[in-house]
Amino acid sequence: MSYKDVEELEPHIQKLCRASLEARKMSYSPYSQFKVGAALLCSDGTVISGCNVENASYGLAICAERTAITKAVSENHRKFTSIAIAADLGKEFVSPCGACRQFLAEFNYKIPIYLTRLDGKVQCTNLEVLLPEAFTPDFFNQR
Predict the structure, then answer these.
(1) Is 128 a catalytic residue?
(2) What is the 3-state secondary structure (H, E, C) of the chain?
(3) Active-site position among 54, 65, 75, 133
(4) What is the pTM for the complete model shown?
(5) Which of 24, 94, 115, 133 is 20 to 30 A from 63, comparing alpha carbons?
């Protein structure tokens, strides 16, 4: 997959990527020190951000993507057009974990995903690539 400088993206996507970088700063990650931020673009143009929140009982941690989606749904947003995720692994891009991929698939199986590094490089992908043959609400509509 190719990547671009954030400045090469459309202005609304630049804003989304920058919002994910800002959300990353709010991370509560005292155990792993691995800060992640996410910014979710809703169909009405609203941007909802989230960060990862760890817990001493590791299994109770919540990822940035799920935080953003949960916040959005609690504010009556259900249609999402894209998401940006920011993390720092040097020159590597950080994609959503399997649970977050499935969580995203609940709302938009084809959602564009912008993996954002601290140096401003962005890898553009989508959920169809990251989670082929996902289990989606469409399965229930086929009965």
Answers:
(1) no
(2) CCEEEHHHCCHHHHHHHHHHHHHHCCCECCCCCCCEEEEEEECCCCEEEEECECCCCHHHCECHHHHHHHHHHHCCCCCEEEEEEEECECCECCCCCHHHHHHHHCCCCCCEEEEECCCCEEEEEEHHHHCCCCCCCHHHHCC
(3) 65
(4) 0.95
(5) 133
